[in-house]
Amino acid sequence: RAMEKSRPLWDNPLQFVFACISYAVGLGNVWRFPYLCQMYGGGGFLIPYLIMLIAEGMPLLYLELAVGQRMRQGSIGAWKIISPYLCGVGVASVVVSFFLSMYYNVINAWAFWYLFHSFQDPLPWATCPLNSNRTGYEEECEKTSSTQYFWYRQTLNISPALEASGSVQWEQALCLTLAWLVVYLCILRGTESTGKVVYITASLPYCVLIIYLIRGLTLHGAVNGLVYMFTPKLEQLLNPKAWISAATQIFFSLGLGFGSLIAFASYNEPGTNCERHAVIVSLINSTTSIFASIVTFSIYGFKATFNYESCLSKVILLLMDAFDLEEGSVTADNLSQMKAFLMATHPQQYAQLAPQLKNCSLEAELDTAVQGTGLAFIVYSEAIKNMEVPQLYSVLYFFMLLMLGIGSMLGNTAAILTPLTDSKFISSRFPKEVISGAVCLINCVIGLIFTMEAGNYWFDIFNDYAATLSLLLIVLVETIAVCYIYGIRRFEKDLHTMIGHKPNWYWKIMWAFASPLLIISLFIFYLTDYILTGTLQYQAWDATQGQLVTKDYPGYALAVIGLLVAASTMCIPLGALVTFIRKKGKRERVSTV
Amino acid sequence: DAQNAFKVRLSLKTALGENAYAWDAQEEFLFKAMVAFAMRRYSSRSTTQTANVLLCNVTDRVSFWFVVTDPSRNLTTVPGREVEAAIRMNRHRINSAFLLSDRTLQFLKITSTLAPPLEPSTPPSTPVWLIVFGVVLCLTLAGIVFLIAGGIRQRRR
């Protein structure tokens, strides 16, 4: 058929695999998985993680790839073929992808910002700037650390609350524009250009991770972090939150439900073995998460040890100066004995000094678990500034973040563009380049919201609420649609024609029962969690104290959250309703004729 | 005479590690000489002798107190402000004599002026990051124009 012949294809199956890896392996592997590992029992967390991977990740990934490859259409077209009432599912996927691409590229803008600032000696976040009359350091920077100051003040220029919107930061706006131009460059020609770019975006992060692994493991104190992470705290396995987090992480890490995987698979040759690819991609994704957390925890260990040793030397110096002891008489080993001795011999003086003597604890340093932008931009940059040749490691690291982010953006934009280019209405009027350009331009302009002073708060709103509930619902409907509406027997036969053998009983049980049940329980859990917590709150940066404080969302922010969730979830029933009305209208016209 | 006396603290092992010298009477003599030198340089008291610099309370740390007496009038100490100004003016010479720095040879009441900001005091006309940004931007735009032009040419063919 003419339309089939003109559909662009991947040059070879390797490009497809790389595209999926590039999309699935994203920032979440680097900044969310290590946090979860630390929170839910270290090495023990791997047990629920791997179980969820096999029960939920692989089957759902296989399902999406198979649907895309069979229907050879983007998400809207594919679900229309399965059942005309399900066109709403495709539209919901596109809407969620649209929301995601709006805010996700801001992360790339931040990565660009840090990357460009890495070409200086010393690194700008290594020291506090002096205040205006050069008598001391900038006040806000004194209260917190120089890396946090650089992130909150010089990068974001964050306002104290969501209500104080402030103005657009031109530096961030420039970086965001550049980020969108780079994305446009990669998606401009469709699979032709995307296919070549994913070779780089998929493989380069691994090179950097290996370099960081070697560097991280050779850092002083890295072992402390690794031991801390991997000692399994098996009692956490009894905590239901651990299992739920494992399921959620697998689900979102693979990027199910956005329509990107369907879009990528639709450019496959019909005979591609998507079963093998699904297993490979999900295994590589999980292995990368574990690999990245080894790197992250060596870095954690290094940073914690460094801070601990600085704290110790400060205390030692204080004691030596106050009691005029010989240098070298107080060391880390005899600190507690010396303290006891001094307390006994000079009680008054010691009591005066006592409030300044902090109790340095390595455990406390390691316990500061961080996730998200805090981990990527604050903790890592703090560790980097203490390494030798920090500029090199900084450039490598932020370049890796950029590759991970752009790889995921390619998938997101593919999810939006594929249905647009599939629709004959749009693609006959405008060439591919114009459609891609329009999408990038609209997203860039809307994205300027996130470059305002309160932009990071809006970013958090989008990050936490734009995709979570909607995706669960979308994937649930997808699974039920394929198994029960399309029919699992029909699906089996399609797979047989495509890859040459029927899926075995394991896949069928997972698709028909286990995965839908898992998703339903996740969905119920999140709904009850939102309802029980009452008002939603967020972390705002207080410049006067130099730390984060919790605040309530104002009314209009809650309305936006509601809109975000509703905009995508309502598409599903609305789509069914519209199709129903259209069909009824057609039937009535036919019957009157 | 607390207001005219200054406490000095040296951190020899921190600064010099293995090469740290022991603090003995000869080093004290050098210190007295440096302070006398500073006083001579600063004010018109060109007759200040090492005997006019009095050290006391030397501890293991190594730290001690010192005062400077007026050579012309016995048993009066030079005002603290003068001593402070003199030492400030010649701080670098004093530090170098002992192979130490402002941090390891501390005069407890005399604060050192903070190091100038690490960026040059007159910022460059374009900050470094803008230059790198410009380079990447031009490369990206060139790539986009190239690809679009290629696409238009392909379609015309």
UniProtKB/TrEMBL annotation, chain A:
Coiled coil: none annotated. One of its GO terms (biological process) is glycine transport. Belongs to the sodium:neurotransmitter symporter (SNF) (TC 2.A.22) family. One of its GO terms (cellular component) is apical plasma membrane. It comes from the Eukaryota. The chain crosses the membrane at residues 12-31, 43-63, 84-104, 170-188, 197-223, 243-267, 279-300, 395-417, 438-459, 465-488, 509-528, 556-581. It is a multi-pass membrane protein. This is Transporter. Its main location: membrane. Signal peptide: none annotated. Pfam families: SNF (PF00209). Na(+) binds at A24, V25, N29, S253, N285, L404, S408. It comes from Dryobates pubescens (Downy woodpecker). One of its GO terms (molecular function) is metal ion binding. It is found in: Membrane.
Automatic annotation (TrEMBL), chain B:
Pfam families: Collectrin. The chain crosses the membrane at residues 128-152. Its main location: membrane. One of its GO terms (cellular component) is plasma membrane. It is a single-pass type I membrane protein. GO terms for biological process: positive regulation of amino acid transport. Residues 2-157 form the Collectrin-like domain. The keyword Transmembrane applies. The keyword Cell cycle does not apply. It is found in: Cell membrane. It comes from the Eukaryota. Keywords: Cell membrane, Glycoprotein, Membrane, Phosphoprotein, Signal, Transmembrane, Transmembrane helix. PANTHER family: COLLECTRIN. This is Collectrin.
